Each structure stands twice: as C-alpha cells, then as structure tokens.
Amino acid sequence: MNEHGKQIRLPKKAEKVKNKTPAPVQITAEQLLREAKERELETVPPPPKVRITDPEELAEYHRKKRKEFEDNIRKNKMQLANWIKYAKWEESVGELQRSRSIFERGLDIDHRNITVWLQYAEMEMRNKQINHARNIWDRAVSILPRATQFWLKFTYMEELVGNVPGARQVFERWMEWEPDEQAWNTFINFEMRYKEIDRARNIYQRFLHVHGHDFRNWVRYARFEERNGSIDNARAVFEQMLEFFGEDGMNEQMLVAFAHFEERQKEFERARIIYQYGLDHIPKEKSVELFKSLTVHEKKFGERLRIESVILSKRKVQYEEQIKENPFHYDVWFDYTRLLISEGQERAEVEDCFERAIANVPPYMEKRYWRRYIWLWVYYAIYEELDANDPERCREVWTACLDIIPHRQFTFAFIWLMFAQFELRQLNLTGARKILGVAIGKCPKKKLFREYIEIELKLREFDRCRKLYEQFLKICSR
User: What does the sequence similarity comment in the record state about its family (predicted)?
Assistant: First the structure.
C-alpha cells in the first residue's frame, strides 16, 4: 500500500525467490565420472594384430619399436627402467650387440646402479656368453665392491661352469674387502662342497681375525673341527676363545657351549670344571642358564652327593635373590638358615647367614614388627647350643639379643626365660637368678614371676618363693 491507499504489485520475477538451501542429495565429481563411464556406449577396440610377411616389414617394425624406445629415453634419461626394457627387447629379437650397446649407454648414465649391472650380466649368462659375463662381473665388483649380490652371482657363475679355481679366486678377492659374516660362511661352504677341509680351516682362522668379536663365530669354528673329527683342534679353539675374551668379556653362553662339547666327548670331569669356573667368575644374575646346565649335567652324569650339592647351590641362589629384593623378609632368612643347617654346611657359613639375618633390625619401634625378627635370635642361640655345642658363643648371642631389644618401649618375656633356662642347663644357678632378677626389674610381668617361682619351687627354695610372691602381690596390687 502507498500513501494514497493503492496496492503496489511486484514484478513476477521478484515474486519468485530462489531456494538457496543445499540439496538433500549431493553430487560429487567422482559420481559424475562414474555415471559417464557406466553410460559409455562406444568401446575403444584393441589395436589390430600386425602380421609380418617379409624382411622389409620386419625391419620397419623394428625401426618403429626402436624409435619408441629412443623417444622414451630421450624424455627421461635417468629412468633406467626404460633402458633395461629397451635392452631386453633387443635381446628378444636376437640383437645381442645392440643390447650390449644399450646397457653400456645406461651405465654411462648411472654406473652405480646395481640393477643395470645385474640385468646386463644375466643377459650375457642367459645367452651363454661366459667371457662377456665374466668381464661385466669383474667391472661391477671393481666399481661396487660392497655389493654382495655381484660377488655371489660372480662366484655362482664360475662354479656353475665348472671353473672352481676361478670361483676360489673371486672369493679371495672378495675376502680382501673384509665383508660381513655371511660372505665368509659362503666361502667356507664352497670349500666344504669340494671336501677342502684344510682350506676351510684356514678361512675360519682368517674369519676370526676379522669377526672374532662375536663368540658365536668361535663356537661355529669349534663345531666345524668337531664334525670333521679334530677333537683336539676343537678344544683348542674353545680355549683360545676364552683367552681372547678374558674374564671381562666372558659370558655364560660360551662356557655352556664349551661344556656341552666336553660332554659329547664323555669328558664329564672337564665339563664340570668348566661349569664351576663359570659360576666362580660370572656374576650370579648373569649365570642363570649356566647353573641350569650344570644341574642337568649332574643329574645325567653326576653322583648323588654332587647332585645334592648342585641343588643346594641352586636353592642358595634363589634365597639370595629373594633376600636382595627384601632383606626384611624374615621367613626367607629362616628357610635359608634351616637349609644350611639341614645340609650340614660349615659352621662359619651358617653363622655368617645368621649374622646377616640379625643385622636387618626392624626400622619401626613397634612390637608387632619385632616378633619374627626376635625368633631369628632364638634360632641362632639354639644352633650355637645344640648344633655347634658352644655354650660361650650361645651366651653371647642371648646377651646381644637382650641388648638390641628396646626395653623402654617393649620387651619379650620369653627371651629372659629362655636365657635363664639356658643358664640352668649349664648349671649356672646364680647366672639364671641374676637374669630373672633383671627381667623382673625391667618388665615385671606375671609370666616372669610364675616361671621364676616355679624354678625356685623345684629347687626347694621356699624362702625365695615367699619373697617373690610378696613382690608379685605388691606389683599386682598397684
């Protein structure tokens, strides 16, 4: 409506507003191409087969193919795959000289390309051009002496045509470059195929001068000598290996290999000495397999006492590992000391174990942490009295035990009683009474009074009993 009240009509184009919201189904370029491909009605026929009937047509066909190859090469000279395809095509039509020329042109572009050299030499080998192939391999190994494929193919070709001295000469040239272990093993296997034991032995010795840092190469050499019946040489190789590595570089694998060799020769005592030498010179954490092998050895060939000794050593190692992880695991110390006592070990070793055990004093001044620890002292004292039959040492143990207990925080009445009973067994009545008197003074417990009174009653010391009862009643009445 305008100011005069008339309605204004909009043009028809203005009445139609274009919907600019995105369509529910989106069309992609990929979809358009797919539909166009599916609706393609005309198919491109394959090129017609060409039937060549005379030499002129054949020459024309060859000219066209060569032009195609040359054009491809001209576009990208560095694409050596085009050179190889070109050379192979020339080979397929019997033009070996042209094929050689193409390979040479390719090598002028990149003379360090391994694939071109391989294809070139293999082309000559396929066509039985041995001298040409030999020259190519010789050039290849001179330019790229670290390319293992060249040497392997070269030696394979010489051996294939029966030129064993030539193959050996190629191997010798290769070894001058001190290649990796695979190359040396290939040379050794080559000599073994022709039963050249002495030559193979010489190669092994040169091999170890280059790659002697790996003990497995020494073991491989020793097994070579063993397979060929040279037992003394094999043993000498093992001994040289141990001398070469020394104690610092020695490991359990080389000793296990040496010991297994002696076992195969029925030299059981030698094997046992090797195992023991390893256990004496290699840390325990690095000699697990060595110990297992020794156990198996003793079970197979050892006597009963030796087997028990090995099992004992194995259990010792297990206990030591557990103690190293947690020295306050007192149950392990109990098992360890019981093992040593039951197996009749030397007194010094048992006492050393006890001393190490009691040195691990609980870090907390609470009685519950001390209960298992105190029993280590009791077990120690009983061992000194009954097994070692040393009363003086036993008395020292009991005294040290009482000294280490923090009596102001807590005490253990049974320790005082067991110490007093020990003195009674030694007929030291005065000492027993002194111990019990000190105990009552430091910890006047009912159990101590009752046991003390029981002892005096058995001795018919009624006056002492009366005094103890009086003291007992005074304490109980507080």
Answer: Belongs to the crooked-neck family.
